[in-house]
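Review session, final week

We close the course with one last complete record, chosen because it touches almost every idea we covered. It is PLAC8 like 1, a protein from Sinocyclocheilus rhinocerous with 148 residues. Go through it on your own first, then we will talk.
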Amino acid sequence: MDPLGGKDIEANPTGREEMQLPVLTQPGLGETTTTVTTISQTGGDWSTGLFEVCGDTSTCLMGAFVPCCLDLSLAHQYGECMCLPLLPGSTFAMRVGIRERFKIRGSVCEDWTTVYCCYPLALCQMIREMKKRLKTQIYTISTTLESS
């Protein structure tokens, strides 16, 4: 093994030239941990209706009194920049994105009508959907590698 380049050096059968082979594996001693995350629910309809606001009191109150803060929270849960709700049409885009991400039945026309006619209710429904669908099950698998 070449001490500087980290490559194995092998003589050519003719004995005149040397070939350098890349290191393909690293030593496997120690413990490795793998985390597997699964999302349990996809597809179908929205998990709650547009007017089913009583189940989540905090979301309901935020949607009624400070929907702009709820929109910021939604952008954060969706994985976007917190400034996204400042852009025109962003809530509509997030609703379409949520519907596409979780394969929820509907259309762009329904999304537009819901967001622009029932803005606070649409925000509450989207937050409830994100909370419900992003509940994940996390399994941690640990393996110990030993040399033989």
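Two points worth writing down before the exam:
Residues 99 and 106 are 7 Å apart (CA to CA).
The helical segments are 57-65, 67-78, 90-101, 108-117, 119-133.
Good luck, everyone.
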